[in-house]
User: What shape does this take?
Amino acid sequence: MKTRQRILNHLKKTRAASAREIARALDLTAPNVRHHLGVLAADQRVEAAPNDRQAGRGRPEKYYSLPAITLGDNLPALAEALLAEAGSQVNWEAIARRLAGESDPAQTPPSTRLRNLVGKLNSMHYQARWEAGAEGPRILFERCPYAAVIDGHPELCRMDAILLAGYLGMEVRQLGKIERNRGMCVFTVR
Assistant: This one.
């Protein structure tokens, strides 16, 4: 097994460790471990934080851990349970308004609204863009932030359409959707 993979496996077990502790546990030299940790940190596969509890002189020893995003979460299961429990009682318009935030379509030109909307969507991990189309602007999502639960809850696509329409102040219709992480969601604006 390669050294970097051994370091990552050790951090999975211990949650956090210094280069010196990792070197001792894996029977490696501390400079060698620091080199590999530097590469892993540059690739964002580990995070470094100073040890605030260290007493004495000198530079605080850094502790390394796996980024929280790589550890996973239980969000898909929670979302699935909440959506199943709420059933038809969900107020999709209220949720869409809350996600979209404040917007005053009457006071903003359409092109500015589209640009602002794409920025808002990308802050929510949609990988969105807009393009001109023969029937009017089209909004494209290259990623579905609800991919983990969308198969069981297609109503989330309806919520996206409501969000777009509310933010833009125009009618929005969905033309296509991402299927098994292929393709993209396409909405047309009228």
